[in-house]
Amino acid sequence: MTTRYTDPEWVQIIRESQESLSDDKTIYQAPMIGSPEFARYIDHTMVNLDAKKEHIDMLCAEARIHGFRSVCVRHHSVSRAVKNLRGSNIIVGCVIGFHEGTQTMTEKVAEATQAVKDGALELDMVLNYPLLHTGEFSACYTDVAAVRATAPPPTQLRVILETPQLTQYEIIAACRIAAHSRADMLCTGTGVAPTSEGVERANNVDVASTSPEDNVRLMRDVVRGTGIQVKASGSDVKSLGDAVRLIEAGATRLGTSHGVEMMEEARATVQGITHAAGMRMTMEIAGRDCGGSADGGGGNLKSVEEGGWLETPSPEGTRTPVRQYFSPFPNRDQRAQKSWGNI
């Protein structure tokens, strides 16, 4: 496969992208935590080398229970995952060139070919990011473009950048290369490669100086207007708070092995609100004012008859508080809970 641009031409493309950055700080609205919409952000992931058949079976069962968007596995587990999820709307993704990204182009193409043949609808390909360190942008492009040619649409191609290993300049370069290769999505990392703390490269930016949320915003900014989306993945997504912060930063998918814990944490939070509401209803029946929240939140719930809402603080570091709505009921014996959500 021939390269699209020479390395000097890539340098010019990257420089133009640097100059056109918008520094957009938009806070995107996260869906209701614990809701079906929230669950559909999650790619339930198991890419351990020692994953056994029963582990893949459990992964797929959990995805069905919680309604996750997809499962993501290694290529030798694709056919089993597809069989497990037959009849559901949960799709199967597969990592390619995992986790180093330094496999040969031929090896990556072979993995992609087999994964698609076995039923994978999404491919998460690890970029050969060491080539970015040495300015070999044409070779990096050829690597991605070869997999894209092997697995054209409707197969989704997502390119894992491994942002903890990259400077801002290299992240921009990776985004431009993926965009020119017609990738559908950018992923932040594998969760396996260590962070190279204190390393400085082409643009004198410490690779450890930016947060996962800043990286998501940067990646969105570089590919704005192209339709390419950003998936936060790996070690960036370990808790419910991480998930909400990254969605607020602009991530449209979350690749994580912690999806079940996140859903359980979210539902526990919602149950806590419901319990608080029940206490306030008891207080109201006893003739006491029950507006507001005892745990630092707020609200305007005054009585069962009037209805209203209660709110708990957002997960630490996020701007998406959880608000529970209660419809008015003429009969105090009816349940107060009607629906719940985020504002």
| Count of runs of 4 or more consecutive helical residues | 11
Indicate the percent of residues in helices: 25-40%
Share of residues in strands: 15-25%
Low-confidence stretches: 201-205, 285-296, 327-343
Main sheet strand line-up: 1-2-3-4-5-6-7-8
What summary fits the major beta sheet? 8 strands, parallel, barrel
User: Count the strands?
Assistant: 12
Give structural notes:
The chain has 343 residues and is of the alpha/beta class. It has 11 helices and 12 strands. An 8-stranded parallel barrel has the order 1-2-3-4-5-6-7-8, surrounded by 6 helices. Strands 9-10-11-12 form a 4-stranded antiparallel beta sheet, with helices on one face. Helix 8 (168-180) links the parallel strand 5 (156-160) and strand 6 (185-187). Helix 9 runs parallel beside helix 10. The protein is globular. It starts with 6 loop residues before the first helix and ends with a strand. The relative contact order is 0.12. Mean pLDDT is 84; it is low at 201-205, 285-296 and 327-343.
